[in-house]
Design a protein that fits this description.
27% of the residues lie in helices and 27% in strands. The longest helix has 17 residues.
Length: 162
Amino acid sequence: MELLVHDLPETPAAWETMPERTILSPQKPIHRCVGCFGCWVKTPGCCVIPDAYQDLGPVLGHCDHLILISRCVYGTFSPFVKNVIDRSLAYMHPYFSVRNAQMHHQRRYQNEMRLSVYFYGDCTPEEMATARCTVTAIATNLDLHQFGIQFVQDTETWEVIL
């Protein structure tokens, strides 16, 4: 299954007809993660905040391709996409392991997921460098071994890119 998270004003109609794709967009309001760790302690794997994103952990656990499309905001994600990333905490266990000589949380699920990130908008070279570092850090935190990042100028071509 593909999970597509985007901050575009409207979801392109062609995306809605793809059978193995789940789409998360700003049309459904999202509450921000409050760092309560309820997804680890009270309801393992699921967020305790009751909204359309509380089952994000299990959704990611069945995902083989995570696609993030975001406006480039100071070299990182837009507020909506960042909120979804923050709420993905339930995908991880509270237990630790060492990866790349750094301490990170262990995965809760055994799926092998790849990450594709598309930033749109005008990005300076410094913002692009920051975005690359951010995506690498997220891939490491989520224990993803395949990931890529692209910077897209023309947002009218999403159907062709995806």
